[in-house]
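Marked as duplicate of an earlier ticket. Keeping the data here for the record.
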Amino acid sequence: MGEVGFDINGRNKSSNHIDDDKNGYIDDLHGWNFVDNNNDLKDNHGHGTHIAGIIAAEGGNGQGVSGVAPHAKIISLKYYDPNTSGANNLSNTVKAIQYAVQLKQSHKVEKLIINYSGGGLEPSNEEKKAIELAQKNGILFIAAAGNERSNSDQKPYYPADYSLSNIISVTAIDRNRNVLPS
């Protein structure tokens, strides 16, 4: 990626305040914060860090458990702010999906999976179009199906219930296969 290494002045590209890879995001080595429009990826909600650990936690180091894909590389795209409106969160979601598509195209990423733990009870045309763009670019989309105490088998939950072939809808169940509330 263009934000790795040193620039012609010997400054670290990950923190030189220059958009070295010319993708419109300054120093986005580890991802982008669409809430504050910067590269500060601190998790003020906790859910993203929790899910990243389930996915890619390094095993065999005496700390916790191994993730399901411990060698996966995580790019953090912060879109959710618990203190803002649903419309802003949705807008940031669409921007984050578009960023992931741009990343796959510009950096020739062979395999890219978007894990999206959010969603809602109302469909969004903009969100669906962004996921369709991801589909056209070979990006798999993992979507939550049981948030807000919903069960998408009983009542649609989006984006999990868009009829797109690149979406895998997931939820948490108990030992009796009952959907757990989030």
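See parent ticket for discussion. The longest strand covers residues 140-144.
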